[in-house]
Write a sequence for this structure.
C-alpha cells in the first residue's frame, strides 16, 4: 500500500473551496491565508483524522470540516513560527513565508484568522450530534493551548530544553499533542469510545514523537531544495533537537524505535488499521 | 443605578482563579497571559453577557466560563494590537504592554494561547445543553475571524479606511462584532430565541458602534494618565478615526446619536433591561 493520496485529494479539494470572506475589502488578508494554506504538502493531520475514520468503517468525507480545520490550525502555527520573533524563516514549502510575502502584520493576522475560522468551520459545518462536536472542539482547544501546541512553542523559544526530559516535553506539546488530537478526533467522529479511544491515544502519542524526531533529523541531513524550507535552521537558532542532544546516529535509532513502538501500539487498536500503518511508515521514511 | 460592579467582581474573581497550566516549565508564558488578563478594567464584554442573562432572570454566575472567555479573547486582541508590527504601544491600563514586559515572541504566544484557552474554557466548563454551547462557540468564532475582529484589525492596519463606509465597516468588524456577540451569547445562554434574539442583536450592533466612536474621541481628548494608554496614538499612526474624518464636534454628536439609537433599540427588548441601559450610558460617558 502507498500513502493515501485519495484522502489528500479530498482535503485539498475541500480546502480550495473554502471562502473566508466575500468582502473584497479584506481580500489581501484572505489571500495571505489561502497562500499559506494551499501551499501543498502531505496533509498528514487531516489524513490521520480521515484514516482513523476509515479504520472504523466511517466515511472520511463526513469529517472534512474538522480535517480542514486541523490543517488550518497547523498552517496558523507555521505562519507564526516563521515570524522574525521566532524562527525568522524565509522559505516554507519552497515559497517565501507568509510574512516575507505579505508583511509581518498581515502574517500575524492571517494566523489569528485561520485559528478562528478553523473553530468556525467545525461549529458550522461538521455534522455529528452536538455532544460529539463539542468533544472534538474540547480536544482541539486543549491540544492548541498552554498544554499543547502553544505551550510547546513557548518551550522551544525559551531555550529551556537542554535536558532530555525538557526536550521530550517540548516535542510532546509542540507537535505530538496536535498529531494525537487528529487520531483522537477521528475516533470520536467515528463513534469510538472507552478503552478503544485509549488504544488510539497510545498510538497517536508515539506517532507524534516519531514525527518530531524525524523532523529534527531532516533539519540536519535534509536538502533545502527537497525540504522546501531552509535546512540547518535548528543549528542556526541554537535550538536543542534530538540530533543535537543525542547525536545524529542515536537520533536515527530513536526514530526507528519510535516507529516500531507506534506500530506496536497500533496493533492494539481494533479497527482496520492498514492506512494508519502506511502513514506511520511514511512519517518514518519521509525525506521532507 | 450605577455600573454593575457586582458583575465585575464576579468575573474578576473567576478570572483570578483560572489556572492555565500546572506545568512550571511554561510559567513565564502563563505569567504573561495573567499579567495582561488581570490588568483590571471595566470588563465591559463579560458584564454585557451577564447583564443580558440578568435581563431574562437567568443567573449571571452560570455564564462565567463564557464571560471569562470573552475577556480572554479581548485581551488576546489587545496584546496582538499593541505589538510593534501594529500600534507599537508601550502602555496599556497604565502598565507596560505585554511585549514590552515579556518580549515579542512571548507576547505573540500569550495572545495565541489566550485564544485557545478561551475556547477550551467554554467547551469544558460552560454548563448548558451541547447545542446551545455549540451555538455560543459558533457566534464567538465568527465574531473573531475574518468577518469579525481580525478582519477589522486587518482593515485598520491596511489604511484602506479613508471613506466613511470603509471606516464604518472597520469599526463594525474590529470592535462592534465582538461587543454584539456578548449580548447575543447572553441571550442564547438565557434561553432566548427567535425575534427576541434579533431585538438583542439590533441593540448590540448599535452599542458596538457607540463604543468605537467614543474610543476614537477619547484618543483625541483623553489624558494618557486617565486612559492608561498613550493618547494620540491614532494621529501618530495616521489612522482614520471618527474624529479625523468627521471632526471632533461631529464625532461627539454621532456618539450622542448612537447612544440614543442604542437605547431606542434596547426599548424593543422584552427583558428587564435596566442594567443594560446603565452599561450603555457608561460606555457613552466614560473617560477612558
Amino acid at each position: 500500500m502507498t500513502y493515501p493520496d485519495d484522502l489528500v485529494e479530498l482535503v485539498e479539494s475541500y480546502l480550495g473551496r473554502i471562502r473566508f470572506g466575500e468582502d473584497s475589502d479584506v481580500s489581501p488578508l484572505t489571500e495571505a491565508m489561502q497562500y499559506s494554506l494551499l501551499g501543498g504538502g502531505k496533509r498528514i493531520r487531516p489524513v490521520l483524522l480521515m484514516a482513523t475514520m476509515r479504520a472504523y468503517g466511517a466515511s472520511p468525507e463526513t469529517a472534512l470540516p474538522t480535517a480542514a480545520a486541523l490543517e488550518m490550525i497547523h498552517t496558523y502555527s507555521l505562519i507564526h513560527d516563521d515570524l522574525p520573533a521566532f524562527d525568522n524563516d524565509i522559505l516554507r514549502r519552497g515559497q517565501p513565508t507568509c510574512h516575507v510575502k505579505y508583511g509581518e502584520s498581515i502574517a500575524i493576522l492571517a494566523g489569528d484568522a485561520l485559528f478562528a475560522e478553523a473553530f468556525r468551520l467545525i461549529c458550522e459545518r461538521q455534522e455529528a450530534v452536538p455532544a460529539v462536536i463539542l468533544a472534538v472542539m474540547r480536544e482541539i482547544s486543549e491540544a492548541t493551548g498552554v498544554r499543547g501546541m502553544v505551550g510547546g512553542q513557548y518551550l522551544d523559544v525559551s531555550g529551556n530544553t537542554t535536558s532530555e526530559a525538557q526536550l521530550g516535553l517540548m516535542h510532546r506539546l509542540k507537535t505530538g499533542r496536535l498529531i494525537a488530537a487528529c487520531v483522537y478526533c477521528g475516533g470520536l467522529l467515528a463513534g469510538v469510545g472507552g478503552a478503544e479511544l485509549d488504544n488510539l491515544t497510545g498510538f497517536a502519542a508515539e506517532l507524534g514523537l516519531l514525527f518530531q524526531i524525524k523532523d529534527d533529523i531532516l533539519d540536519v541531513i535534509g536538502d533545502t531544495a527537497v525540504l522546501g524550507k531552509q535546512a540547518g535552521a535548528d543549528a542556526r537558532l541554537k535550538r536543542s533537537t534530538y540530533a543535537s542532544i543525542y547525536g545524529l546516529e542515536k537520533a536515527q535509532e530513536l526514530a526507528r524505535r519510535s516507529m516500531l513502538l507506534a506500530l506496536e501500539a497500533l496493533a492494539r487498536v481494533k479497527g482496520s488499521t492498514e492506512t494508519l500503518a502506511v502513514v506511520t511508515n511514511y512519517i518514518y521514511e519521509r525525506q521532507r
Notes: The first helix of chain B runs from residue 5 to 17.
